[in-house]
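Question (not urgent): is this output format expected?
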Amino acid sequence: MPKVLDLLHGLAVYVYYYDHGNPHCHVLKGKKGNFEAELKVELNSWKVLAVSGFSYRDCKRIIEQLQNNSDRLKEAWDEYNER
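Got this back:
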């Protein structure tokens, strides 16, 4: 699972190799292997697919940061999920 971006407040954005479903990313807070919070966001609609440990307000702020990096995230999805 390659890290694609670092966001504010110690958040990291990952795109998994050969992941299933529509293009999406995972935003994780905390140390690898012991994450405090996770957010899974679809990259075309910016719909929240799963959330654990983040408030609604946190999610809105994170999605804004993701949207600002939309091109990089979509490129990473394509690169890591070519079939």
